[in-house]
């Protein structure tokens, strides 16, 4: 199970995650988020763990130029877009694996299907689809779970791999994996002792639960 811990804000925590064997860390460049980092912070974090863990840059409605500058200064391995970026935007970064986040609300996965249909025409499909819970005025990190059964019933097998997010914790991640069979999981608030403060015990328990053998 591929595991990403998002919203990392210091090198010490990043090193702990690398030692723990987490697959990826997320550096959040969306300034309004309590988990956001400056480029200077991101450079320090990336320098501490480069080559040991995948470094993912999270962006929300940034310009192409802003993303390119951050890539150049920080040295990102992967990009994650959490805003309203169309497939044309993804096409600006052909050399990168891109995780496209979608917020699942009352419309279910219909918007995801439309997006991927358009992206396929442009040869601009994301590397993976991250499904998070929709929350008015927010782009993620809300601690709200998606409808796992609805997701499992409607996520198309021919789509890019599923990364499950939204309200995951050490207590529910195994049940979420059993219900939705994702390729990977992504967590932020579910392993925090307070907003933006990562808790090592919660992280360790989350990783153990996510990688536990899934029951038949």
Q: Would you give an account of this structure?
A:
This protein is of the alpha/beta class and 216 residues long. It has a single domain, classed as TIM Barrel (Alpha-Beta Barrel). The chain contains eight helices and ten strands. The strands form two sheets. Strands 1-2-3-4-5-6-7-8 form an eight-stranded parallel barrel, surrounded by five helices. It is globular.
Keywords:
single chain, 216 residues, alpha/beta, TIM Barrel, eight-stranded parallel beta barrel, two-stranded antiparallel ribbon, 10 strands, 34% helix, 21% strand, globular
Strand residue content: 15-25%
Helical content class: 25-40%
Number of domains: 1
Which architecture per CATH? Alpha-Beta Barrel
Provide a concise account of the structure shown.
The chain has 216 residues and is of the alpha/beta class. Helix content is 34%, strand content 21%.
């Amino acid at each position: 199970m591929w595991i990403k811990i998002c919203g990392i804000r210091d090198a010490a925590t990043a090193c702990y995650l690398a030692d723990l064997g987490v697959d990826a860390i997320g550096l959040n460049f969306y300034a309004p988020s309590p988990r956001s980092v400056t480029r200077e912070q991101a450079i320090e974090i990336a320098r501490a763990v480069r080559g040991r863990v995948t470094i993912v840059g999270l962006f929300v409605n940034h310009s192409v130029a802003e993303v390119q500058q951050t890539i150049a200064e920080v040295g990102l391995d992967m990009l994650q877009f959490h805003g309203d970026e169309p497939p044309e935007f993804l096409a600006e970064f052909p050399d990168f694996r891109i995780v496209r986040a979608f917020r699942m609300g009352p419309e279910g996965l219909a918007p995801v299907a439309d997006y991927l249909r358009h992206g396929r025409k442009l040869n601009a499909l994301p590397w993976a689809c991250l499904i998070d819970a929709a929350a008015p005025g927010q782009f993620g990190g809300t601690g709200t779970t998606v409808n796992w059964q609805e997701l499992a019933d409607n996520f198309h097998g021919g789509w890019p791999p599923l990364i499950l997010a939204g309200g995951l914790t050490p207590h529910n991640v195994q049940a979420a994996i059993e219900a939705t069979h994702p390729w990977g999981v992504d967590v932020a608030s579910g392993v925090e002792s307070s907003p933006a403060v990562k808790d090592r015990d919660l992280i360790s328990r989350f990783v153990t639960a996510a990688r536990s053998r899934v029951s038949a």
